[in-house]
């Protein structure tokens, strides 16, 4: 797929897939590094949760992934040469899991002042209809942000269990089937969801949220980002350093500080104590 085709297709449909980023072998190495880190943190529940929400800030291999030339080449066609990663979160569905993601738009609760954002969803394992791949509704990004309701439903992987509260026809949705090492790209206003994992293996993907440096948190907070291409001429965010090692105490401390900011932003207006992601 040519770079010009990426920007044209995303403008028309709101998404592009499949996009080859790495080989399956490299994706398997990333998954192995993640699983080794999970094993190391098995008795540290809070730090394990941080790993799942900040893998790029705690593992050099994932920091390299968000800076991968193939991803930068694609995203810069849409957002331009100056790029930040607002966050990189893992979406994990265990084998034979009922976990799901309800229909939603990404930018609903992120507290960002504009829509200059693209999410690259990188597959660390096979993502298909059996394992609960994403589903995209073509052209829905053109509706801008629509009302959502919070469900806080058990098994919903979203921070607030947020669900779109307007009528639409999900029969028109497209299944986003990806092999390990492939990614999809989608606009922050696109309607999307995913079902449960009916397979014997975990389904794992990294959602990498790219933004322009001109974006800012409407709350005035300077949340933690990675500058992955170009320059930052605005100073609206706190720029993270590249991890100098695996699971370093200093990096955990930085993530905990950002956790307090993102928790306040993502759960603004929600009922007290609801939600677990970014907690």
Structure overview:
This protein is α+β, with helices and mostly antiparallel strands and 279 residues long. It has one domain: q2cbj1_9rhob like domain (Jelly Rolls), CATH 2.60.120. Helix content is 28%, strand content 23%. It is built from seven helices and 13 strands. It has a seven-stranded mixed sheet. It starts with a helix and ends in a 13-residue tail after the last helix.
Précis, in short:
With 279 residues, this protein is an alpha+beta fold. It has helices spanning 3-13, 24-40, 45-53, 55-58, 60-66, 69-79, 249-266; strands spanning 15-20, 83-93, 101-104, 117-123, 134-136, 148-150, 162-164, 174-175, 182-187, 192-194, 203-211, 224-229, 238-239.
Key terms for this structure?
28% helix, 13 strands, single chain, 23% strand, alpha+beta, 4-stranded antiparallel beta sheet, Jelly Rolls, 7-stranded mixed beta sheet
